[in-house]
Structures are given as structure tokens and as C-alpha cells.
Design a protein that fits this description.
The complex is a heterodimer of chains A (about 190) and B (about 230). Chain A contains eight helices and no strands. With about 190 residues, chain A is mainly α. In chain B, helix 1 packs across helix 3 and helix 2 packs across helix 3. Classes of the chains: A mainly alpha (about 190), B alpha+beta (about 230). The complex binds zinc ion (ZN) (2 copies). Chain B: InterPro entries: Anti-sigma_ChrR, Anti_sigma_zinc_sf, ChrR-like_cupin_dom, RmlC-like_jellyroll, RmlC_Cupin_sf.
Amino acid sequence: TSVAMDGEALAGMVRSIAEHRDQTAFVRLFEHFGPRIKGFLMRQGASDSEADDLAQDVMLTVWRKAGQFDPVKAAASTWIFTIARNRRIDVLRRERRPEPDANDPLLVGEPEPCAETQMSTAQIQVRIREAMATLPPEQVEVLTLSFFEDISHSDIADRLGIPLGTVKSRLRLAFRKVKALVGDEFA
Amino acid sequence: MTVKHHPSEALLLAYAAGHLGEGLSLLMATHLTYCPDCRAAVAEAEAVGGAVMEESAPVVMRDGALDALLGRLDAPAPEARRPAPPSVTRRRPASSPARAVQGGIALPAPLKSYVSDLAGARWQWVGPGVRQLDLMQRPRGRDTARMLRIAPGRVLPHHGHEGLELTVVLQGSFTDEQGRFTAGDLAEIDRDGSHQPIADSGEDCICIIGTDAPLRFSGWVPRMMAPMMGF
Ligand SMILES: [Zn+2]
Ligand SMILES: [Zn+2]
């Protein structure tokens, strides 16, 4: 599908930056992601100018760290989402975000994935979007609110006027449906 | 290590979305070190996040943003900022060995930048058989994180929760109303829950506890303990 092509094309642009310092590819990535990162951050509560500054920082990080992008592990949009998330925590909350370390000797490894059945991460991204399109609206609402609003699930419950348990069960259902439709690619 | 107790989908999503504070994120990162299943679930939630960002309504960048950015591309990257070394690991003088704990355990990487030397750490007495180590000396948010060392058979005060409380066991085990938790397990209790954990194996139970709001103690003894524990 064309969306899958988009995903592959976006990943290709990041690779091209990593390998050739390709400014043309960077401009195309900026035109695609810059305004989306900005819109996403504004819906998370950043002001227009904060979101603009942060989106520029994120794109600068994309340029500098393009060599760390691994298309086998994540789609370009997923990788850029995690950069935006971490930058926002760093700048707006001034907190650290502890993460597991892939080189930690204590890290418990996952079983080797079966190479034949693996979809590309770009294909997985398409499946995830398709899966989200089939979810009931109330599940999409809590799933989307969970990303956009920097509020706890208790606050989401209060805002929607539903019990906390209902928020959690809607998220659980949404997650399981996405997982069922995407397959075991993440397991 | 067989991990039996995992965070809820809601919690995995909150971590992936970046909405957890530093203390709760530290608890999640510790569990994720021991749990490939939950790492896969976080990766999946991040992919959902990528899709949500991809589909959010674009907002036009300010005039000249691209040119300004292109002008910065070849500037040298700033030095990565390293957090200040944690102060909880200062060794006590040899004359006061009472609070030194023998036999450190191997710490997962996320914890190491909060407490680098367990054996030399300044454990704080909080009650009979219970010692703690504050992991967040200079918190910026409202989260707390502490390591607890609980002697076999000891019971923690019964308490309720104003917000989320996460516990990850590093050594030994404890049991509460939700079940039995051993190394790698994550216990999740939200604002509606209350419980009374008891350390129930032959060795000290070493665990980390993170909260995003103060705990509520019931009964007069626990209320006396609350200020000592800094809750
Ligand atoms: Zn888990
Ligand atoms: Zn508790």
C-alpha cells in the first residue's frame, strides 16, 4: 500500500542522512514530521513557541543521531516519536527518564525472533494504524488521550466521568485488539 | 528468574507515552530489565505513539524555522549532560558500621545511577527490621523512589494510596493481598488499593518502591512511622 511505501521511504531518508549527510532528505523529513511533531506537542500542552523550539530540537537530533536509527527495531515515525517524548521530558519537566540498558549484563534476553515471519517495521506501523481504525470510538478515545494529554489515567477517568477501572479495561481491550491484528511481531 | 507479576497495559502505555515521573519510570525500567515480554509491549505502545503522532493535525512551523535549522546542522553537538553523581553512596566512617549492610546485590543498570555502591550506602532505620535508602535526593517532580531492606517475617504498616505505588523485588520475596512477589516481579497498586506486605522468605527482602503521591497510613503506629519513613 502507499502508506507502507511512505514508511519505507521515510526510513530510507533517515538512512540517507546517516550515510551521506543528505540535506535534501533532511528537508523532506522536516516538511513531513516538523509540523506533526509541533501539533503533537501542542496537544500535549506545549505553547506554540515551545512546541516550535522542541520540534526543531527533535529534528536536529534526527540529523545528529540518524546513525543510531535501526529500521529493524522501529519505524521512522516510532523512532522520532521517542526522540520527541524524551526531549519533552528533558526540557519541559526537567526530569530524567530511566530506561533499561541493552548492554546490561542483568538484562534478561528475548527468544530469537523467527526471521521468515517478520514483517518490516513499516508494515507493522501500517497494521497498527489499520487496527486502530477498527477499534470502537471509546477505546480510541482513551488510547489517544493517553498519548496526547500529560495527565494520569485517574485524571482521564475524572475528565471522561468514568471509573478508573473502565479507563484501564478500555486500554487493555484496545491493546489486545491491536496486538491480535498486528500479530506476534512484538512478542 | 521467572517473572510472574507485570505492569498493567495502562501503566506500560503511560511509560511509553512519557507520562510517568522519574520515580515510577525508574521502577518500570528496573522491571523491564528483567522482562522481555514487557519490553516488547512498550515497543508496541511506542509504535502506537508513532502512529498517533503521524496522524496528528500538523501545525505550521514558524517562518524561517527550516532555514534556522539548516544553519545549525553543522554546529558541533553539545556535550551530553551527565547527571550529578548520586550522594546516597557516600561511605560512612568505619567507626559506625551499624548501618552498613553486608553483601551487596547486583543492581540493574537503571538503578546504578541512583545508588552505585549498595554495601557502602547510608541505610536509614525506619522500624524494627526495616531499613531504607532514599533514591531521589533532589526530586524535581512529585515522585518518590526508595529502596527497602526488610528482614524475614517483618510486616510493613498497612496503608492506602493517594496515587500509584509500584514495587519491584530485587531479592527475597514478599506477600500481600495481591499474591506473592519474587525477584523481578512488579506490584502495582492504584489510588483505590490498600495492602499490608510481609517479607516471607529466609533472606532479607530487598525491593524498590516508587510513588507519585503520598501514602495513607491507617492506625496510630503506622502514623508514627509515616514521618520517619518520609512518606
Ligand atoms: Zn513484565
Ligand atoms: Zn503500598
